[in-house]
């Protein structure tokens, strides 16, 4: 079940019979050292030139880019630009940005997951190209129910290419400040403090790369050679939440989205994303043009859209899953 804010004609990932593939590749690397994090994760450290990305034949003889040559420029301060008259024209995008508060939703079964994320999409449903980034809870992937930073990519509609984090070759990590797949803390609390992460993905025009930045720290990039429909730009950007469930028992899952509360409850109670922006063809971050929202099962999970001077374009979203109105 997915809900998303779209800045183009909507394409529903959930209706494409999304199959979560965990590409546990047998990547044989000799770590320079192994580190045990405070939360118990064991992190193997390898030389930057020996990371899994370069096992991909599409990256043969790839020259590592340590940093982007350029950053998207801010187009406005406050509410200077009108959402309708100053959006990107032609449905061609070169990136997206969002600030999202971080929760730890309850997940019913180990093979289910709940995420808050942004999507960069291109192509048709049969071979859609997708770049994803955000946070999720995915017990089967990590062996626990903790909230973790994640990325994902595919170049063929989730069939055989792509993976989460660094579980296959593709994404080139250039900074070790963040651990992809690492736990996030502190977390937001109901009626309490709200903690956020910022995510920015953009296409660097001179480097053939989609760069990822979190909390103003460059993490790395996806070389455009990995993709077909995302080689140059993206026609669709989405922000929102996703719950994956097989629903094998005929009932709706109790897996929560976001905080587990509906968006109408508002700040400090519901999950949100704010300062939603897109990168246009002038390499500028701009507010959204004609955004639309969609919830596949609004009695289970829902979404609302708004705009203020302080938050720019924003969404509240989420829900408890199974409830009297969502059997």
From TrEMBL:
Name of the protein this chain belongs to: Neprosin PEP catalytic domain-containing protein
Every Neprosin PEP catalytic domain range: 74-327
Native species: Cinchona calisaya
Record's signal peptide: none
Pfam families, per database record: Neprosin, Neprosin_AP
InterPro entries xref list: Glutamic_endopeptidase, Neprosin, Neprosin_propep
């Amino acid at each position: 079940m997915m809900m998303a804010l779209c800045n183009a004609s909507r394409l529903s990932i959930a209706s494409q019979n999304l199959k979560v593939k965990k590409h546990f590749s047998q990547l044989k690397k000799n770590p320079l050292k192994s580190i045990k994090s405070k939360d118990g994760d064991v992190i193997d450290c390898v030389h930057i030139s020996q990371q899994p990305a370069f096992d991909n034949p599409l990256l043969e003889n790839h020259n590592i880019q340590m940093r982007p040559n350029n950053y998207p420029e801010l187009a406005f301060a406050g509410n200077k630009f009108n959402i309708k008259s100053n959006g990107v024209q032609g449905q061609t995008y070169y990136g997206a940005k969002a600030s999202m508060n971080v929760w730890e939703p309850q997940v019913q079964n180990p093979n289910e997951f709940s995420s808050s994320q942004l999507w960069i999409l291109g192509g048709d449903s049969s071979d859609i190209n997708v770049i994803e980034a955000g946070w999720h809870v995915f017990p089967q992937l990590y062996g626990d129910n903790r909230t973790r930073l994640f990325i994902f990519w595919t170049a063929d509609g989730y069939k055989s290419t792509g993976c989460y984090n660094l579980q296959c070759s593709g994404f080139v990590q250039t900074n070790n400040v963040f651990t992809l797949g690492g736990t996030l803390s502190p977390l937001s609390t109901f009626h309490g403090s709200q903690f956020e992460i910022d995510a920015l993905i953009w296409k660097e025009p001179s480097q053939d790369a989609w760069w990822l930045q979190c909390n103003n720290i460059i993490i790395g990039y996806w070389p455009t050679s990995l993709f077909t429909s995302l080689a140059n730009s993206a026609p669709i950007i989405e922000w929102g939440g996703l719950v994956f469930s097989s629903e094998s028992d005929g009932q709706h899952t109790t897996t929560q989205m976001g905080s587990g509360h509906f968006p109408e409850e508002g700040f400090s109670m519901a999950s949100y994303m704010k300062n939603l922006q897109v990168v246009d063809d002038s390499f500028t971050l701009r507010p959204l043009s004609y955004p639309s929202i969609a919830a596949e099962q609004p009695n289970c999970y829902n979404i609302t859209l708004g705009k203020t001077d302080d938050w720019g374009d924003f969404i509240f979203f989420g829900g408890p899953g199974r409830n009297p109105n969502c059997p």
